[in-house]
Fold this sequence. Notes:
Blueprint: H1 4-27, H2 35-55, H3 76-85, E1 91-97, E2 101-108, H4 109-128, H5 132-168, H6 171-182
Antiparallel strand pairs: 1-2
Helix pairs in contact: 1-2, 1-3, 1-4, 1-5, 2-5, 3-4, 4-5
Amino acid sequence: MPDETTLLADECAVEASTWLTTLADIASGAAPESAIPLLLLTTSQIQLVGARLGAISDIVLDQRFETDPGPDTELDPLRAGLAQLLHGVDEYADLEDPVTSPTPATGSLSNDLVIIAGALTHGLAHHEAGRASEALWWWQYSYLSDWGDRAAMAVRVLQTLLAHLRLDADADLVGEAEFDALHP
Length: 184
């Protein structure tokens, strides 16, 4: 019978795989009219996985080092597909750190989503190699240090875009921006 660590790693691996598959489908441009709502939904779901990892005690590796999971997955095609799909709405205003530094910065949805994809893929490599605790350690560590922040910002930006599209934007302006974003 699998232990709690293995069960949690298996659950996280299923969610990570589902998110990566959905992201790749969206980035392919097959359904550009639903890209923003689907990105909001799927990124909110993976953010829940990260929050769950952030809420548990720190995962500590027995060996105190991470086994090399092998070569990194090539994510440039994913980044390019997302950048093309989100052209015109990809960049947004951000802060360096809302707690320690109110310095204005800029962000990119496509970049945020690829950062999340890279972290999840890295953890999946550990999981697929049978290293459940290393997968959990990586997902937790990278959630707290990087992808959790990027997921939170992506969800905020996607929700804001959706709100503007549906609630308060001039219909002609929205139509033009949507057309430009979907037909580069």
